Amino acid sequence: MRLVELDTLRDALVGLPGSSGKRLTIAVELVANPSIIFMDEPTSGLDARAAAIVMRTVGNTVDTGRTVVCTIHQPSIDTFEAFNELLRLKRGGRIIYGGKLGDHSQTMIDYFQRIEGVPHIPAGYNPATWMLEITTPASEQRIGQDFAEIYRNFDQYREVEASIECLSNPLPDSQPLMFSTTYSQDSLAQFRTCLWKQNLVYWRIPAYNAVRLFFTAFCALILGSVFLNVGSKRERAAGTYSSFPYAAAQGLVELPYIATQTIIYGVITFFMNNFERTIGNISQQNNDIIVIL
């Protein structure tokens, strides 16, 4: 809580607007203690002050030894210069620039200004905005340069490639990464936490539960009115059959139809949702659907 500067809001309900929600999302990811965190536009929809708070939280996360990879949309100067490195891609996933930003983005600025035809950055101009403007396809066509090819011939590109190759091969005496358990807590601790959380969630949304109870009573009244005073004496009085044979026969007849429904529904949704295509996953989904039906 202190890391993401939410210790003063520890007793507040989830759903606060502004940077608090963004920081809460970061905090949830930090619970698993990851070594690398990916963030998709953490400052989108925030004003300058809220974005600065979020970026300060990101900086606090980096200070703990973790790596943070972000996509950023139209960052301010302060937000842009809070990062250490930049990866700029063009259409097709080709790299235009990948490396250090430098102090006040000077390393990146020097790199692009060395390219023939690239205008120098105006004084006080946002380096992020300038970089995006000069690397558009229209700018490439105007100056007759391919920024991706220029980067491939740059020394920094070869250094990055060599670094990737080195890090991709484990050391000879290193041991494979293994964990004794899949989860950090045992099943009982997970159950207690989930039970407490779900109970709290349901307690905090009385309107949802009230609507559920209302519709239950409403549906019961409709069905009750359809079969009003129908009774249960006709077949029993005639001695035709007892309750168990009737229910057993009805259930057995229903089984193939329910199975057909399950297969059709499961196959369509499974492939449309693009789940992992293994027999276990398909069987599990169909079993869940059968239970629901």
Overview of the molecule:
The chain is built from 13 helices and four strands. It has helices spanning 19-30, 48-63, 77-80, 106-113, 127-134, 137-143, 147-152, 155-168, 187-204, 206-226, 234-238, 243-272, 279-292; strands at residues 36-40, 67-71, 85-89, 95-100. It is mainly α. It has two domains: 7-168, P-loop containing nucleotide triphosphate hydrolases (Rossmann fold), CATH 3.40.50; 242-293, no CATH class. A two-stranded parallel ribbon has the order 1-2. The radius of gyration is 30 Å and the shape is elongated.
Number of domains: 2
Approximately what portion of the residues adopt beta-strand conformation? 5-15%
Note the run of SSEs as H and E.
Answer: HEHEHEEHHHHHHHHHH
Biggest sheet character: 2 strands, parallel
* Overall 3D shape: elongated
**Average residue pLDDT:** 83
Please count the beta strands (DSSP E, at least 2 residues each).
Answer: 4
The whole-angstrom Rg is 30 Å
CATH superfamily of the largest domain: P-loop containing nucleotide triphosphate hydrolases
CATH class of the largest domain: Alpha Beta
Question: Helix proportion of residues, in percent?
Answer: 55-70%
Number of helices: 13
* CATH topological fold name of the largest domain: Rossmann fold
Low-confidence stretches: none
Distance between the termini: 43 Å
Return the CATH architecture of the largest domain.
3-Layer(aba) Sandwich
Side by side, the strands of the main sheet go 1-2
